[in-house]
Amino acid sequence: MVEMLGVLAIVGVLSVVGVIGLSSALDSAKANKLIQALSRRATVLAADKSFGTGFTDNASFGQDSDYTITCTDVPNSPLFFCTVSTVPQNVCQKILKMNWELPLRMSPQTCNQTNDMVYVFGEGEAQEKTTACTTDAECTPQATCTEGVCVEPPLKSCDTNVENPCGDECQVCNPSTLLCENACTRKSYLESTGTQYIDTGVAVDTNDTFRYDIIGNFTQFNDTYQLVAGLYASAYFGISQEDTNKWYLSSLALSEDADLNEHTFYLYSQIGNNKISYLGIDGTEYRRTRNNAGGNLYLFNLNSHQSSYSTHFRMKSCKIRKNAVDVRDFIPVLYTFTNEACMYDKVEKKLYHNKGTGSFTSD
What per-residue confidence (pLDDT) applies to 292? Predict the structure, then answer.
């Protein structure tokens, strides 16, 4: 009896090992089959994108995987993406460990019980390959070494109606794919042509102080005031041809002649009882007492005069401090999903678009 029980125990262990091995082999086979199906699609669809022949219909690939694969084009972009529905956890983990040579970013990074896995193909930031590793140092700065392979951060799903749904440096919600992607191409400046402005969203009331720091230049003189930045009927700076091309601090014309050269400006306002504004131009400071008023700070215009004054200004950067705290750090970018020139705020990690008419230009 003891010998029989021993034999049965050995058979049981071998059976369990065999089942585990068989299950692992089946998962590997399904993972390989899925990779082959994705590779086939990537080859065909990349050729479609390159030659502009139209995007091949999903049905034409047939049922070449154990899971439903749906590939979608991203118009006006080198990218396209494929979604694989309800991939089991074990197969997902097998795929993560496979060193397959294909440009991709995969989401999610962690395999749950079932997954809708998204693979993004194309150029630039989307081209990431799985790489064997032993430590994080062998991977890209963003990746981590997980179970022997470099795993890139996942492309998070997002909602374009949610404020700052991505939260990473220059990552925004792609309206076509609803994935968080790098959509910012850094530009050297953002230029207004007269009807554009940006609402910074920085509200200032009678107890606040604020300061703009701006690098840029006017691109032409107008017959009326040109207002670069400021509050409603209060602190702003600009130039006016009416007064022989003079710099202006609020409604006060400075004695120095204005020009179209690049300068480092700062506008500082102490809105408490003193009601003082300071304008700095390349280190030279001017001041005046002014009326008190609140509202949101604007760029390229004054809050209450979006349509009254035409500002032609080329802005390279703008930082805003409110009550001695950095609240905005704007840099000019091109929003690649819509080819729109706008500002990216490195503090809030979000884009600020034109609130006026027409379009900003950039280079």
Answer: 56
On whether the CB atoms of residues 341 and 360 are closer than 8 A, the answer is yes
Query: How many separate domains does the chain show?
Result: 2
Q: How far apart are CA 14 and CA 257, in angstroms?
A: 92
pLDDT band at 326 (very low <50, low <70, confident <90, very high): very high
Residues 64 and 146 reside in one and the same domain: yes
Give Cα 164 to chain centroid, integer Å: 9
In a domain, 173, yes or no: no
For 193-213, the pLDDT digits (tens) are 888 999 999 988 777 888 889
Q: What's the whole-number average pLDDT of the chain?
A: 78
Tell me whether residue 178 is in a domain.
no
Rounded to an integer, what distance in angstroms lies between the CA atom of residue 135 and that of residue 145? 6
Give the separation between CA 144 and CA 135, rounded to whole angstroms.
8
Half-sphere exposure of 212 (CA within 13 A, CB side): 31
**How far apart (Å, rounded) are the C-alpha atoms in residues 200 and 265?**
18
Crossing angle for the helix pair 2-51 and 89-97, nearest 10 degrees?
A: 70
Q: Which domain holds residue 262?
A: 186-362
- Over the stretch 128-174, which tens digit does the pLDDT of each residue have? 445 567 788 877 666 777 766 666 665 677 777 777 788 777 787 87
Identify the CA nearest to 297 among candidates 184, 190, 214.
Answer: 214
Which residues on adjacent β-strands are paired with residue 361? 191
> Are the CB atoms for 252 and 267 separated by under 8 Å?
no
Q: Are 24 and 42 spatial neighbours (Cβ–Cβ below 8 Å)?
A: no
Whether the per-residue pLDDT at 349 is higher than 80: the answer is yes
Beta carbons of 200 and 297 less than 8 angstroms apart: yes
| Global pTM value | 0.61
Of 49, 157, 76, give the one whose Cα is nearest residue 340. 76
Same domain (yes/no): 234, 300: yes
Instruction: List C-alpha distances in Å: 97 to 85, 109, 236, 285.
Output: 19, 12, 58, 61
Query: Is residue 253 included in any domain, yes or no?
Result: yes
Q: How far is CA 336 from the centre of its chain?
A: 10
